[in-house]
Specification:
Oligomer: single chain
CATH architecture: 2-Layer Sandwich
CATH topology: Nucleotidyltransferase, domain 5
Order of helices and strands: EEEHEHEHHH
Shape: globular
Structural class: alpha/beta
Helix content: 40-55%
Number of helices: 5
Number of domains: 1
Strand content: 25-35%
CATH class: Alpha Beta
Radius of gyration: 14 Å
Amino acid sequence: MRVAAVDHGQRRVGLAISDDLGMFAHPAGAVEASGLDNQAALVAARLKELGAGRVLVGLPKNMDGSEGPSAQGARAFAEKLRANFGGEVRLVDERLSTVEASRRMREGGVSSKKQREKGRIDAGAAVVILQGHLDVASPPGTM
């Protein structure tokens, strides 16, 4: 079963999908839409195209573990996605995923300007969320 991750934002939703073995996360672009209902419907359709069976929605917690308005938005989005997707939808802590994605892209030679184009950073953050999950779900040497 392929696993997907979602980095929810007000304007863009970044997507990542695992390989068939569940070992590596790959960027799957971003969906641009406003409104939770519209976002959830478009993301669910894209996830079905990608063959995802389970979806992880990033929950942006504050560094002290508390939840602010962005976390509330992610929770509301996850509920809408559950209704549209039909598969398993789970919330996972995504603290600093965008920071980590930006750092990795900079190290790979991608400028800050290029990172913002076409939702690259959003998909990159989804990759960070998903790869963290895959690394814990199937530790090296267990396959």
